[in-house]
Input
Amino acid sequence: MKRLPRLDLNLLQIFDAIYTKGGVSAAASHLNLSQPAISHALAKLRAMLDDPLFIRQGNRLVPTGTARAVAEPIHAALRELVAALDGAGSFDPAQSTREFRIGIRLAGEMSRFPALASRVLAEAPHVRLTSTAFRRRDLVAALANGDLDVAIDVDLPVEDRLCREPLGVEPLLVAARIGNDRIAGTLDLDRYLALDHVFATPRPHGPGIEDIALARLGLQRRVAVRCQHAITAWQIVAKTDMLCTLPRSHVRMLQDIWPMQLFDLPIAVAQSSSYLYWHRAVQADVGLAWLRAIILEVMREE
Output
């Protein structure tokens, strides 16, 4: 085991930059250091750890097994140290120029991000706010390495390294074109099944929550159109006699653009809960604590 007094924190920061940015040049640019300085630091680390850490393959530096083994603990430790130092000071939203990166799935950005961005920028006009998509299998890593500060998603199995807070549940509503002669002001299950449906999902395959509930009863709706975004589905419904089932938050946004007939879903479904996720390493970061409080407030209001 290496004695901590021999370790230079700057060397760990340089290792972390090389690993996360993918090379010496990118690390030098990220840290505002010269490439020779980065290379010198890497040579010292290699000698200290008795391992090459990165091996050149063509134009890429590929991490060794040792580098991969220590990369996440080093990154997490550095983030926790930065968060602790930030937490020892203060965060002034009115003056901050920080960038906050919020992970939001494509299906939820339209309904959630506008209200959130409006509230954040009202209190912190100089910050930068980024909405970014993510793969669920990469969520822990993205929160650990700082690619995301927080993430909003459905109920997921989480590790001890992640914290989460519930954002609540919302019902599904059914939209139909105003003037659709096949609906006489009400929508029962028989009529719901008799009409064709548009299904909005970024997934190329798989059923929706409503399809799962129908299948349990031995029933099935006909999905005539499958598209990637709720806006597209809404436009299709506006020009056809098809139906579209969407979360209430989506419907509220789209109803202002193109009014529809709205109905309660005529079948009981398992309510989908959403959660706010973040990494334990940034628990003490007062800036992120401020951001989390705003997200919780806005999402629960919605």
In short: Residues 29 and 176 are 53 Å apart (CA to CA). Residues 1-5 have pLDDT under 50 and may be disordered.
